[in-house]
Write a structure and sequence with these properties.
By secondary structure, this protein is mainly alpha-helical. Helix content is about 75%, strand content about 0%. The chain has a single domain, classed as Na+/H+ antiporter like fold (Up-down Bundle), CATH 1.20.1530.20. It is built from 15 helices and no strands. The longest helix is centred in the C-terminal third of the chain and has 33 residues, at about 365-395. The radius of gyration is 21 Å and the shape is globular. The N and C termini lie far apart (about 60 Å).
Amino acid sequence: MSTYTTLIILSGLVIFSYLFDLIAGKTKIPSVLLLLFLGVGIRQGLDYFNIKLFDLSTILPTLGTLGLILIVFEGALELKYSPAKNSVIKRSFFSALIILLVTTFSISWLLYELSGGDYYRCFVNAIPFCVVSSAIAIPSASSISKHKKEFIIYESSFSDILTVVLFNFMLSNQHINVGSFAKLGAELATIMAFALGACLLLLYLIGRITHHVKFFLIIALLILVYAIGQSYHLSSLIIVLALGLFLNNADQIRLPWFRKYFIYHGLSIDLKQLLQLSAESAFLMRTFFFVIFGFTMDVYQLQKWSVLIIGGLILVAIYLIRFLYIKLVSKTDLMPELVIVPRGLISVLLYYNLPPALRLPGVETGLLFVVILATSIIMSIGLFAYNRRVGKTEFENV
């Protein structure tokens, strides 16, 4: 494949992704779905013409990690803290935590009964199916009311972070005891201290860098900090969320020494530019990730009844547990929170980070594809119905 052909393909994918975003805004069909189908279609076309490419699945974890960092960072940069938001933060945290744990235990029991594997392997294989993907949930929530959107942003971000913490904890502790939780507490304390240092350093640099290129440097440093933390098995996604929240709310800190060294004229303008750059970079990473994931999918796995049946049971567990939590615990409106539980980027990342020795037969990319596809379709139908109902109510009240 020539250089120019490669450039045509890459630019074409970006153009298609932009068009898909426009379509998503009108139809409420997540652009991720269209990107997945585009990747599947490209694979079928290349197979038909017997054109071979190198194994693209090797770059999926890298693209997915970059996309995850940028999407969570972008979402955090849009959140403005006030004491009045303590309630929504607390609700979203406990919603993410409780639903994650109950769903993981339920799906792991399901896999245990169906596969006959040991419970530990079933538990770690269940985790990728239990995370709400902020990469899909946050953009999809753009059309709903502000307070519901904030809940979705916090909940999906907390879900990402808590799931990564649980995943790393389970991989590091095949046998759980008191020492395991003590080690977890020490790791979380370390990451919080690391996050505080990173926040202060990056805010200081933003105000001091005079070179015309500085925001890509800030993003590169953020990625570097994330990678260093992850290399020591720390849940570095906490740093990403903390940095976004810290930068967007730094002007609320009234300490004189802090304002002297860290707050400067033009900070709000710089933050807007950083948010714009993060959003556009996340758009690129999301585009290439989901197209390549669709491309690497073995669609013939979908012909297996076992994949469809297990996928259906997992979906029942996901929505039943969320329904019961909303009705019995949070006691709020079911819609649209019930349907905004898409699985996506981080589910794929966690699956690829599972050691081969721990993977269960039958729990493969085909099963992931079924769950990702179904949750996205259910979300798009639910959001379409919800927005139509809200629009009709507003029209009748005029």
